[in-house]
């Protein structure tokens, strides 16, 4: 999309308008939701051609969509908008973040090989999927970018990393990671940053993956996933989505697409709150450590501070309270925060990764039992700080 003088639209404008270019011609102002599970076929030949195209990764916007599992116009709108925000040729949307990861791993296996190099820490579900080898992949786990080059093999189909990482907000230098991966394509889980703060493809990353359940939806009422990539990857991923039945539901796609309109605003406002909460926690008695990329000393590479990679530190943070008992007392003692897994919603959430999101991770890579992960929402930061203060004080 461009402005009237042909300049490319800025991210905030794309967030509001992308995927809605045909609204005026359609005479609508809000996204139409197409719930059809099947579509009328103009003829056997046209239907058959469309089926073939859909099942092999093609786009069905100009013909019958045949069947919702192959293609859906509401899902395609969200994909088009999301690709624009990530600066990608294509995006492919799924029923969840894990369904997205499953399809990408399967595509990488087909395209290049079944070996995966995974940089820890990763989201617990991703770590679990790789560690079990459920999809026939073999994974070499590494703990630092410096170990990646030696772990890559001729049959490495994918190098996987997450930044900022879940749950303790470690930052990965994407340019260094891409250089270390060499020929092997890199996938980055961009869930915590969103395209508002970080666009991995600009740093040479091949695939930027999201649990859209988090910031993209933004209101805790939709489950979805999406991956932004080039045309060739999309061609490989779409048939797998069609065959395994992992496409996003049209109503979910509608909610994800709507979420994009306020994404820049929410991300920046939640980030401003998180900065204040992190600073208050860093000064609070009873907190051993605060993990937040916006705090001094948390970003030695200048990835955030110097804007080399991120436009800001985001709104996820973690605190270390030392022991399981104190972490439990705080998670159960907060009143304004909701004690729940997930993140990126307009309301603030708190949870203990060791028992919940990172439970399936191998013990040596699991976060300590004293660590709590906080997702900061849009409440007034002073109310959030007061809530944490009372819970930490009662935890003793
Ligand atoms: C939640 C999450 C996932 C998994 O996404 P689902 O939508 O729950 O399947 C993957 N990565 C990160 C960083 C997440 O937070």
UniProtKB/TrEMBL annotation:
Its cofactor is pyridoxal 5'-phosphate. It holds the Pfam family Cys_Met_Meta_PP. Keywords: Pyridoxal phosphate. The keyword Disulfide bond does not apply. One of its GO terms (cellular component) is cytoplasm. Its EC number is 4.4.1.2. It is an enzyme of class 4 (lyase). It catalyses: L-homocysteine + H2O = 2-oxobutanoate + hydrogen sulfide + NH4(+) + H(+); L-methionine + H2O = methanethiol + 2-oxobutanoate + NH4(+). One of its GO terms (molecular function) is cystathionine gamma-lyase activity. One of its GO terms (biological process) is transsulfuration. InterPro entries: Cys/Met-Metab_PyrdxlP-dep_enz (IPR000277), PyrdxlP-dep_Trfase (IPR015424), PyrdxlP-dep_Trfase_major (IPR015421), PyrdxlP-dep_Trfase_small (IPR015422). The modification N6-(pyridoxal phosphate)lysine is found at residue 214. Belongs to the trans-sulfuration enzymes family. This is homocysteine desulfhydrase. It comes from Agrococcus baldri.
């Amino acid at each position: 999309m461009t402005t009237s003088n042909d300049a490319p639209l800025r991210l905030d404008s794309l967030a509001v308008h992308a995927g809605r270019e045909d609204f005026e011609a359609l005479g609508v102002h809000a996204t139409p939701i197409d719930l059809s599970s099947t579509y009328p076929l103009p003829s056997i030949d046209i239907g058959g051609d469309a089926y073939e195209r859909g099942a092999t990764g093609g786009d069905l916007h100009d013909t019958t969509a045949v069947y919702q599992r192959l293609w859906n116009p509401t899902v395609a709108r969200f994909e088009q908008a999301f690709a624009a925000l990530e600066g990608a040729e294509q995006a492919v949307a799924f029923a969840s973040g894990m369904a997205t990861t499953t399809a990408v791993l399967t595509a990488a296996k087909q395209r290049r090989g079944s070996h995966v190099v995974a940089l820890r820490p990763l989201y617990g579900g991703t770590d679990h999927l790789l560690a079990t080898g459920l999809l026939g992949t073999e994974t070499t786990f590494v703990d630092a970018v410096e170990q990646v080059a030696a772990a890559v093999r001729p049959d490495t189909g994918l190098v996987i990393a997450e930044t900022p990482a879940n749950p303790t907000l470690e930052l990965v230098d994407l340019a260094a990671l891409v250089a270390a991966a060499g020929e092997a394509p890199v996938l980055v889980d961009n869930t915590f940053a969103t395209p508002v703060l970080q666009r991995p493809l600009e740093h040479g990353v091949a695939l930027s993956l999201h649990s859209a359940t988090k910031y993209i939806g933004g209101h805790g009422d939709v489950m979805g996933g999406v991956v932004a990539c080039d045309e060739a990857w999309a061609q490989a991923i779409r048939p797998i989505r069609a065959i395994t039945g992992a496409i996003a539901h049209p109503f979910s796609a509608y909610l994800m697409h709507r979420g994009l309109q306020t994404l820049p605003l929410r991300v920046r406002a939640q980030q401003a709150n998180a900065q204040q909460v992190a600073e208050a926690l860093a000064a609070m008695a009873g907190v051993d450590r605060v993990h937040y990329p916006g705090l001094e000393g948390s970003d030695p590479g200048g990835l955030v501070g110097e804007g080399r990679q991120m436009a800001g530190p985001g709104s996820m943070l973690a605190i270390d309270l030392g022991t399981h008992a104190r972490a439990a007392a705080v998670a159960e003692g907060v009143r304004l925060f909701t004690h729940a897994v997930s993140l990126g919603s307009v309301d603030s959430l708190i949870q203990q990764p060791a028992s919940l999101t990172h439970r399936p991770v191998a013990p040596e890579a699991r976060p300590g039992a004293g660590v709590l992960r906080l997702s900061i929402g849009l409440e007034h930061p002073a109310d959030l700080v007061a809530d944490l203060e009372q819970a930490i004080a009662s935890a003793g």
